[in-house]
Amino acid sequence: MSLLRPDLSDLPAYRRPPEPPTGLRLHMNEAASDWPEAAREALLARLRDLPFHLYPERQDELTERLRKRVGAPENGLLLGPSSGALLDLVATAGLSAGDAVAIPDPGFSLYPMLVRRNGGQVRAIPQGTGFPLEPWFSALDCRQIWLTLPNNPTGAWISPAALEPLLEAAAARPEPPLVVLDEAYAEFAPATHRLAVDRYPNLVLLRTFSKALASAAWRIGYLLGDPALVAKLAALQLPYSLTAASLEALDVALDFAAEFEPAVRALPDRRDRLSAALPAHQAAPSAANFLHLSPDPSPLLEAAGMKVRRLPGTDAARVTLGTETDMLRVASALGGSLPAPAPRPRR
Ligand code: PMP
């Protein structure tokens, strides 16, 4: 007899790259630059004063702070130790054995593991390098539908207006599926789908501090949804799931949020210049902080000291957008030359 669930025995682990990393990190969709020095100092001062022997005390207070900032209704926001952990909670709370969960294919490689460890069955919805809506209509009978906008690893994105028919159709079912919209990369996209949450009680949105807020080390995510549903999810969350240090990091990241914005605002232009500058590689249209490039550029980029995410089973790789200097390196390794950014209009 196996000590663990036999249905999970063939489940591959999440493919974490080897540590310690060598080479330029363009494989994890992290922010290209660390926190500004003043923000680091502010957080270090907080950590110095933190009582290490006490359970964290600020989760409710900081949930409120973030809720007001994003304009969510009272009790409409749940903090979690990463958006991945919140997605796991949604699966735990919603799935019974054998329930189907629709996920994009290609999609975030963590999803199948989260579905299966919660007893669900994956229904892969083919998306190619775009985000066609049509195939999702065949998934309305699923218990949960996980959408990713922008999608990972392609960067594909559709607007709130374009998504509307699917949300409408899901909500109109006699037993609506729970729709989860993962917006890990939303800050790099032309718009957010946030307002849809106010209209569809069967929709939740997932966000993370790991990308645009340059805080991947601190493992902070949040979920937005109908307050009644959020309360039920909160009741199933492990207590004190964010560390006191992570809560302080969240607070300081919000204090300095305006300082992270220039990098986020500069990114789409750099992304579009790079995708147009590669003579031998095709970049899928991306609304995220990475590009899906084919044919697979990883042999050339790795030979030039850059780590990127190879996409198994395809002739493509995902390359995170780094700083201007990093992207000059990418362009040159791939035989292109990156034009200088257009001068910013003066205000
Ligand atoms: N969703 C998507 C689509 C992602 O690509 C990632 C990170 N790679 C996450 C969620 C996870 O973010 P977090 O760091 O909050 O777990």
TrEMBL record:
Annotated region (Disordered), positions in chain: 1-25
The keyword Transferase belongs to this UniProt entry's keyword annotation: yes
Domain of life, per lineage: Bacteria
Keywords for the protein's UniProt record, in alphabetical order: Aminotransferase, Pyridoxal phosphate, Transferase
UniProt keyword annotation of S-adenosyl-L-methionine present: no
Domain Aminotransferase class I/classII large residue range list: 25-333
Residues in coiled coil: none
Cofactor dependence: pyridoxal 5'-phosphate
Family: Belongs to the class-II pyridoxal-phosphate-dependent aminotransferase family. Histidinol-phosphate aminotransferase subfamily.
Name used for this protein in its record: Aminotransferase class I/classII large domain-containing protein
Species name: Geothrix oryzae
Lineage start: Bacteria, Pseudomonadati, Acidobacteriota, Holophagae, Holophagales
Whole-protein residues included: 1 to 347 of 594
